[in-house]
Amino acid sequence: MINYLIVPIFMMMKRFVLTLTCIMADIINIYGQPVFRGGDNALKAFISGKIVYPEYSRQNCISGTIQVRFRLDKTGRVTDAVIHQGLGIDLDDEALRVVKLTSGKWDVPAGYNTATRIVLPVSFTADQTRCNNITTSESDRAIQTYKNRQNLEDVVIHYYKSKQQGKADTASEATIVNLKKQLGFDDELITELLAQADSKFKQEDRVGACEDWMFIRNIGSTRADKFIDRYCK
């Protein structure tokens, strides 16, 4: 009799524990936070594997951590992604790009408030075999130079966009060519940008690749035109 009574009681307790565990799991699921599929290590591996080090920062040995702010919808898609804290250079653009690539790879619990803003840091570390002698002040100067050259880049891009539309003042082209030399917009840079775009395209990031190809076109080169015509319509 004792054994008979103990078994049902034990089974009832076991069922209670299992039920309680399931309830607690549901509570955690409802009130928990989104999780990248595979966990934090998978997220770090995904981002580090997708980063295509931007050309200016690569050449100038610029490192840094960029914070990207975004929201997730109920299906785990990234929305409203913006730079929360950055350096104001090309690393910002790349951090934003790779965070957008995580879209659809998040598990979002039921009841999650999709208005919640998430801030994700994306770290960039320059090649130490080449950059270990670069000082902080040199890196800071390179960052400032990048910001200062934006106005000159805009002049070049505006000219070639106007030229594509048949509206450019071609008498000023010699000045534009000199600006391109000053900015380092040469065949070597274009080759590197093509390789950068190719890396993004292989990641199935057609938008990122097209941005690079369009930049090449908009600084007066035709070397990306075949890719634009095929993939960027």
Automatic annotation (TrEMBL):
It comes from the Bacteria. Gene3D superfamilies: 3.30.1150.10. The keyword Transmembrane applies. One of its GO terms (cellular component) is plasma membrane protein complex. GO terms for biological process: protein transport; transmembrane transport. It is a single-pass membrane protein. SUPFAM superfamilies: TolA/TonB C-terminal domain. It is found in: Cell inner membrane. Belongs to the TonB family. This is Energy transducer TonB. It comes from Mucilaginibacter hurinus.
